[in-house]
Amino acid sequence: MANYYTDHPEIGFHLNHPEMKRVVDLREKDYADKDQFDYAPVDFEDAMENYRRVLEITGDVAANVIEPNSESVDLEGPHLENNRMVYASKTVENIEATKKAGLWGVSMPRRYGGLNLPNAVFSMLSEVISAADAGFQNIWSLQSCIDTLYEFGSEEQRQEFIPRVCKGESMSMDLTEPDAGSDLQRVMLKATRDEENDCWRLNGVKRFITNGDSDIHLVLARSEEGTTDGRGLSMFIYDKRDGGVDVRHIEHKLGIHGSPTCELTYKNAKAQLCGSTRLGLIKYVMALMNGARLGIAAQSVGLSQEAYNEALSYANDRQQFGQKIVNFPAVYDMLSRMKAKLDAGRSLLYQTARYVDIYKCLEDIQRDRALTPEEKQEMKKYQRLADAFTPVAKGMNSEYANQNAYDAVSVHGGSGFIMEYKSQRLMRDARIFSIYEGTTQLQVVAAVRYITNGTYLNIIKEMLERQVSEELRPLHQRVAQMVNLYEESIAAVKEAGEQEVHDFLARRLYDMTAEIIMSLLILDDATRCPELFAKSAQVYIRMAEENVIGKSAYIKNFKPTDIPAFREA
């Protein structure tokens, strides 16, 4: 029987990464839960066995329930009935199957009914579910909104809402409005204090809300009258049980049909303030978005895996000119690049997830006791790494998912354009990944300061010092040459001294940064497990070298006077 976890040993490789020991020890807080919960692990090995068991259960549900339902969900989609969203019938089956498997509220502490899984393991679950159906992954993975409520809500709010999510109630984050997309400072949904009923009231419209008719919503709203910027925005919790919100419209989308995208009208809806006023955008949404961006990175890796699987299977079955097309150089070149992008992107995803885990765990420990000076330094270090790596992991993996889905259609030839083949659906589903939760261009904006201030360069130089196997040293030397070109390119952009030039060339620097980091990560992986990653290391580094050399030449030969020609075009 198929299993989307055990069928892909690369995921298990990352589960067993050496850094997971620190992650798990922090997450389990010296395994204190073992005295209160009989299912809590007693030590690191026990915790890892628990994670493997949850991943195997998820892999089974993904392969044998969610994936078989995916075509029906794509065709039916959600419905609008009496101002309520109704899931596709097979989506309901998926939700019930994941509830039965205990796959809701998995990141939450056990005292609220959760499994206390680290972010890295949650990302693995997301990848596995996305491989089966990226649209359903959206619905399922939005349970991670509860992390923001756990982090910033009151204890009373935690006790009220977290157990519900652990039992399978759904969530959404209601941020976007008709006039506030990427520019969330323009949010105008109004929040007013109702002193008589000791609550807040929300009025206005939200648009493009994923899973918008969920049970529990986190809502960005304007609480400070007379303000027009981010400092007047606060975060609120809306409970569907209280009423006051209608679904006005469900969008008809290119892809991810099973994931309902709703336009909502708030009419004097009762809500609770989450955290403090005025910090909604400045603090809480940034935390929410960073988690969501890592979720899209996992979603992208899952779809990339499925696209590669579909392409490889078809290439092995299809014969032309008397031989299987997998033996044609043009096809195996495409397939090898797909696999290399998949492996490198997955490595970046889980490296980022581990960085997030370490600093988030230390933040959580800090709620119970003072951190030691060493722990404070560790938290600061890993928060910086997580902040730097998240926009790269989201941006590059979403782009790779699009490229791999496109190439899967190409491998299928004319059949790829036929609706009966899965590859066309993967391509449709992938297109949104580089748009929502911040376009790739916005990921560049988030990352570019780490490029110009030398953060990435210092990280890259530290990574370059790691030992690689004898067989991989020639590749390591090629990466070192890429680093030199990268450093020269950064200097050239900074020397130009013009913001417009800086902004114009930022995407090329971003791509170079990511490709070099992923080259070094895939070298690490190939050193530890050559049977899984040596081929991908060869292919990826050659591909990265091709790109870095080209981008470096472009940057070094670019002049500020070139910009008007592009603007006029």
Give the key terms.
569 residues, alpha+beta, 7-stranded mixed sheet, two-stranded antiparallel ribbon
Strand content range: 5-15%
User: Biggest sheet, open or closed, and with what strands and sense?
Assistant: 7 strands, mixed
Distance between the termini: 55 Å
Count every helix, treating DSSP H or I runs of 4 or more residues as helices: 18
Tell me how many strands there are.
11
Class derived from helix and strand content: alpha+beta
Oligomer: single chain
H-E order: HHHEEHHHHHEEEEEEEHEEHHHHHHHHH
What does this structure look like?
- The structure is a single chain.
- The model has no long low-confidence stretch (mean pLDDT 97).
- Helix 6 packs antiparallel against helix 9 (280-317), helix 10 packs antiparallel against helix 11 and helix 15 packs parallel to helix 17 (530-556).
- The protein has helices spanning 9-15, 20-27, 44-76, 89-100, 119-132, 134-141, 145-152, 155-166, 280-317, 329-366, 373-412, 422-430, 440-452, 455-464, 473-496, 499-528, 530-556, 563-568; strands at 79-81, 84-86, 171-174, 190-194, 199-210, 216-222, 233-239, 245-250, 261-274, 319-320, 323-324.
- Strand 10 and strand 11 (323-324) form a beta hairpin.
- The strands form three sheets. Strands 3, 4, 5, 6, 7, 8 and 9 form a seven-stranded mixed beta sheet that branches. The chain has a two-stranded antiparallel ribbon with strand order 1-2.
- It is globular.
- The chain is built from 18 helices and eleven strands.
- The termini are far apart.
- The protein is α+β, with helices and mostly antiparallel strands.
